[in-house]
C-alpha cells in the first residue's frame, strides 16, 4: 500500500531512491508515540542510508533542519556532536537531516567543526533531503511549511524523533524556526526512557539520573515493597523510590 505512493525517479548520482508523487495530507502516514518508524532510503554524508538497517539494535535520535549554513542549526548540530560520546554510552546513534544536498552538507560540516568542535571531526551522518520526501514522511513541518513542501520556503523542518531498538517512536518534538533545541534535554529523556524500560518505573518532572523515581500506580504496595524495597508514600498514587 505504502509503496504505491512512490514513483521511480532518475537521479543525478549513482544512488537510486524513490520519490513521492504528491505531498498530500490525506495520504500522509500518521506517526504517533508507539508507531513503528517508517523506513526510507536516502543519501547522506556517510553514504546511502537504509533507515531500518541504520537503527539496527540501537536507539536513534533523528533530528532535522530546513537548510544548511543557517545560524541556529549550526549551533544545534555542533551541540549534538559534542555530546556524541554520551549518546554512544547509552547505545544511541545520532543522525541529522537537512533539506539540501549531501555535497552542501559536506561543506557545511567544515563550518560546524570550526565553530563548535575546535576543528575536531564531525562524526555522525546528515541525510540529504532535497526533495523533502523524508520531511513529508515524518510530518516535520507546521501548517505553512506543509503548504510550501512542493517548492516554497519551509522554515520548520526542525523536529526530533527518539526511536528505540524495536523501531518504535518513543518521543517527538517539533520546534519553531526561532527556537534552538536543548540537546541536554534529549539526553535526559533517553535516560528516563531507558530507566523506565529497565526498572518498571516512571520519572517525575526535571528528573535526572540518581534522583528518586516514581512507582506506577498499577503496582500495589506489597509488590512495590518486594520489587523496590523501601519507598516513600506521599499520596496513595504518588510513591517515590530509588533504583
Automatic annotation (TrEMBL):
The keyword Chaperone does not apply. One of its GO terms (molecular function) is thioredoxin peroxidase activity. PROSITE patterns: THIOREDOXIN_2 (PS51352). GO terms for cellular component: cytosol; mitochondrion. Keywords: Antioxidant, Oxidoreductase, Peroxidase, Redox-active center. Residues 31-195 form the Thioredoxin domain. The keyword ATP-binding does not apply. The active site is at residue 73. It comes from the Eukaryota. GO terms for biological process: cell redox homeostasis; cellular response to oxidative stress. Thiol-specific peroxidase that catalyzes the reduction of hydrogen peroxide and organic hydroperoxides to water and alcohols, respectively. Belongs to the peroxiredoxin family. Prx6 subfamily. This is Thioredoxin domain-containing protein. It comes from Ogataea philodendri.
Amino acid at each position: 500500500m505504502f509503496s504505491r505512493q512512490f514513483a521511480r525517479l532518475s537521479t543525478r548520482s549513482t544512488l537510486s531512491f524513490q520519490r513521492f508523487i504528491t505531498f498530500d495530507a490525506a495520504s500522509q502516514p500518521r506517526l504517533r508515540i508507539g508507531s513503528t518508524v517508517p523506513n526510507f532510503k536516502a543519501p547522506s554524508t556517510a553514504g546511502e542510508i537504509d533507515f531500518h538497517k541504520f537503527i539496527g539494535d540501537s536507539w536513534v535520535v533523528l533530528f532535522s533542519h530546513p537548510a544548511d549554513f543557517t545560524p541556529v542549526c549550526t549551533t544545534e548540530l555542533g551541540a549534538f556532536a559534542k555530546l556524541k560520546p554520551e549518546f554512544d554510552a547509552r547505545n544511541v546513534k545520532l543522525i541529522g537531516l537537512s533539506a539540501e544536498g549531501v555535497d552542501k552538507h559536506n561543506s557545511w560540516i567544515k563550518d560546524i567543526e570550526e565553530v563548535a568542535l575546535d576543528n575536531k571531526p564531525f562524526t555522525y551522518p546528515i541525510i540529504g533531503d532535497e526533495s523533502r520526501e523524508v520531511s513529508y514522511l515524518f510530518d516535520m513541518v507546521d501548517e505553512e511549511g506543509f503548504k510550501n513542501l512542493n517548492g516554497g520556503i519551509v522554515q520548520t523542518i526542525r523536529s526530533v524523533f527518539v526511536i528505540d531498538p524495536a523501531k518504535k517512536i518513543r518521543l517527538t518534538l517539533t520546534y519553531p524556526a526561532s527556537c534552538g533545541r536543548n540537546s541536554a534535554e534529549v539526553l535526559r529523556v533517553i535516560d528516563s526512557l531507558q530507566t523506565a524500560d529497565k526498572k518498571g518505573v516512571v520519572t517525575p518532572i526535571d528528573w535526572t539520573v540518581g534522583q528518586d523515581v516514581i512507582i506506577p500506580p498499577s503496582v500495589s504496595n506489597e509488590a512495590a515493597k518486594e520489587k523496590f524495597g523501601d519507598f516513600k508514600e506521599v499520596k496513595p498514587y504518588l510513591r517515590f523510590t530509588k533504583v
